[in-house]
Amino acid sequence: xxxxxxxxxxxxxxxxxxxxxxxxxxxxxxxxxxxxxxxxxxxxxxxxxxxxxxxxxxxxxxxxxxxxxxxxxxxxxxxxxxxxxxxxxxxxxxxxxxxxxxxxxxxxxxxxxxxxxxxxxxxxxxxxxxxxxxxxxxxxxxxxxxxxxxxxxxxxxxxxxxxxxxxxxxxxxxxxxxxxxxxxxxxxxxxxxxxxxxxxxxxxxxxxxxxxxxxxxxxxxxxxxxxxxxxxxxxxxxxxxxxxxxxxxxxxxxxxxxxxxxxxxxxxxxxxxxxxxxxxxxxxxxxxxxxxxxxxxxxxxxxxxxxxxxxxxxxxxxxxxxxxxxxxxxxxxxxxxxxxxxxxxxxxxxxxxxxxxxxxxxxxx
Amino acid sequence: xxxxxxxxxxxxxxxxxxxxxxxxxxxxxxxxxxxxxxxxxxxxxxxxxxxxxxxxxxxxxxxxxxxxxxxxxxxxxxxxxxxxxxxxxxxxxxxxxxxxxxxxxxxxxxxxxxxxxxxxxxxxxxxxxxxxxxxxxxxxxxxxxxxxxxxxxxxxxxxxxxxxxxxxxxxxxxxxxxxxxxxxxxxxxxxxxxxxxxxxxxxxxxxxxxxxxxxxxxxxxxxxxxxxxxxxxxxxxxxxxxxxxxxxxxxxxxxxxxxxxxxxxxxxxxxxxxxxxxxxxxxxxxxxxxxxxxxxxxxxxxxxxxxxxxxxxxxxxxxxxxxxxxxxxxxxxxxxxxxxxxxxxxxxxxxxxxxxxxxxxxxxxxxxxxxxxxxxxxxxxxxxxxxxxxxxxxxxxxxxxxxxxxxxxxxxxxx
Lengths: 365, 415
Prior knowledge:
The complex is a heterodimer of chains A (365) and B (415). The two termini of chain A are 38 Å apart. Chain A has three domains: 7-116, Butyryl-Coa Dehydrogenase, subunit A, domain 1 (Orthogonal Bundle), CATH 1.10.540.10; 122-212, Butyryl-CoA Dehydrogenase, subunit A, domain 2 (Beta Barrel); 215-360, Butyryl-CoA Dehydrogenase, subunit A, domain 3, CATH 1.20.140.10. Chain A is of the alpha+beta class. Chain A has helices spanning 7-23, 26-33, 38-51, 69-81, 89-102, 105-116, 208-212, 215-249, 261-289, 293-321, 334-345, 350-360, and strands at residues 122-125, 137-141, 144-153, 160-164, 170-174, 180-184, 194-206, 251-252, 255-256. The radius of gyration of chain A is 20 Å and the shape is globular. In chain A, strands 1, 2, 3, 4, 5, 6 and 7 form a seven-stranded mixed sheet that branches. With 415 residues, chain B is α+β, with helices and mostly antiparallel strands. In chain B, the strands form four sheets. Chain B has a four-stranded mixed sheet with strand order 3-6-7-10. Chain B has a four-stranded antiparallel sheet with strand order 4-5-9-8, with no helix packed on it. A two-stranded parallel sheet of chain B has the order 1-2. In chain B, 43% of the residues lie in helices and 15% in strands. Chain B folds into three domains: 7-105, Butyryl-Coa Dehydrogenase, subunit A, domain 1, CATH 1.10.540; 139-247, Butyryl-CoA Dehydrogenase, subunit A, domain 2, CATH 2.40.110; 264-402, Butyryl-CoA Dehydrogenase, subunit A, domain 3 (Up-down Bundle).
């Protein structure tokens, strides 16, 4: 019995952390955030791809590493920890899973190796299935998709995009289709991108299994939620570390502020809140990997909503420990604050996800 | 990640399951029921009570015989005499919890004194005390805190002098739970007045029927938890009642205090209480609606469930670190008392909130739900938030020892 990340998973995680520390410092993140770092961003992206994160969830049969979601969770923690300004959750977790679970054999053979070779990068938009807004929605007629999709993840500069109909059927389109209008969304989080897509009879191909089995889209969402929870976990961990380090340096009243109980207790509370979260997120990923559907869906919902709550509270307290400096752009703590804030809202805000968890357990008759 | 215990445990698990089937929802009776009145609610035992009726001492003996309690305590001291096996212990705890089999008796004698004697006691002390304690025949109370030695426990002043080969003890202890039912007390006494604060303390065992002991009940907010003040007026006990050496009492006490902190909020008990709460919410109605159908109540339930699931997963990680010594979860262990007691308090309080007016009923009111255990446990866990090292002291420990933050400077001038 062993509960935790394996040596290999920790090694991979450390590599990503180290890469981000060396190549995506706060100055670089800031440049990217104000839109002056396109080249920088593609360098960082290429570097991360060289580490192999795009191959994680593609089965060996199709040229990938064929590891489980827990491995991706380890990476997601590292990306959250360093507010990695690269696509991951959609392109390299949800997309390969959607194709592997929802595609026909032919589709898998065609699409999955191209994720590994980095010829095709996917964006994913499932908002039409989870929490659709009134003016959004997608319809497919004669293999053409029409409608609007909001909050499509990792879609900027992608090659193809996987979307869902209201009924949960997954299909993909070409990002460069002439009948597609893509508008970048301005969110608080500048480390990742989101788009609104307007489709007018865009050529599309349905992932065949997904039209027969609603479980496909649900599993993709479970995985996405667990990965976002892991991102929040890593980002929260980093904020606590920064708060502690700052409190040991900063002096007031001739003492480091970290020697004041008011500050120490805030740090202890953050640590005590976050520590069980590692276990919850890892267990959720493990449960997804061993495919125990009831347990893993409940764990995915609870990991997403619990990490959203803990992340919210940690990001507030850690900012407060920094005093006025925490509020400034000089320290850039707000990149973590905003990343955690965005993770909370995507693929179901906590109340929505908890309501789903209640339904799974048959609480609402 | 590997959550399987391995096929070598299959047969053991099956044996435990067979035993559990036989004793599901068993009713354990006590010579003195009063002191165990709320035991079931606190430890998350089932309140269905439809199974076999067994006397507590017999139950303890049966569990030892099967190896489901006192598992790794040597046979010569009344234990089962098995090899320590964390996985087996976990299987026993899980199956008992799942099958609603009442837990073995706990308490300060079993949870704290027995491990202390095993580590520090003389052969005579082990022979004399461990067996009857395990059987639930000798009940112990703990004499640590004093009116001026709470969070600053090492400041304790109860004095012991060795006169003609006997310890003569004078002073006062407080927060002594179950003193009125106990045969024995294990006690921290200042025996070396000239030594430094921590080095002047000894660990001494005191029979509660010794002349000069006066017990005054200290009624707490639950009206039933049973704290006491204990006064010592020239209380005289034999020299051999000293455990370890003179002046080693602080080390002796600290070696088992960590154990108490972890055991204050067992995640299995918390999960069982959550399930009891879910049942309550499905059964109780307000304005014709089941409580669980009220969206705001349901959301609060789900929030608590998320925390309970996190703490349960966390206990697996802690278990794993005991089996795999390379796994470092030092910080993870330190947070247990803080997180566990706050969570239980929140969970029990939620039950009260959602019952509305009914939630205020207590004791033997004819309309009270679940025997008044929600109010009792809600208050009791506030006591535990304060006791066993207040949660503020826990935060000092977490931040200083876990996060490496600086200690508060010592005040050198009297204010």
